[in-house]
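HUMAN: Can I see a protein plus its fold?

ASSISTANT:
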Amino acid sequence: MNKTCLLIINGKFSSRSLLKKLLLKYDSDIICADGGSNIAFKLGVIPKYIIGDLDSISAEALKYYEGKTSIKKISRQTDTDLEKALKFIVKKNYSRVIVFGASGGRFDHQFANTSILFRYAKLIEITFIAEETVGQFIRGDKKFNSRKGEAISIFAFDAKTRITSKGLKYKLKETKLKYGEREGNSNESLGENFSLKVVGGICLIIRSLNSFLSDE
């Protein structure tokens, strides 16, 4: 059974209207990683779970959610709250997670978040919202809704990953885009859709939030 959850972490604030769109699009549970519960509190939503060591959640939010949601205190300091939440999500057999709050704030936190998300993309389908764009970790064959001229950026993380594209201005044919060696930023969609074939690993694609919301 495919299950999607929406994970709110303690980063850039996401809008309530976007959250509502995603809840309508997917039959989703909301999960908060510690300080992400402060964002959920401001948005007026009640998560199914709150995960973390609870050192970032406000006293007001904690009091409000007690008795309304399942609060899982995990004190393990070797993991960030994001990783604690992802471990919990994998254990609960969710097949897909959409992450709010992975961008914004300190750059080292953003960089670490991307590393953690890539690591767990080997276990679960991961998408993250970054203001007006979306990051998706992709493996295998996938087709995307788009619009002509939409900026599409693609990154891989090792030399084994090869990417082939259809419907992009700058064609990729079993191309290596290893991070630190070659960048695949600012490609362009030629029309209403494009597709990627990823062999030998996982790639990260950055695209428009609006186009993502129009996907099947």
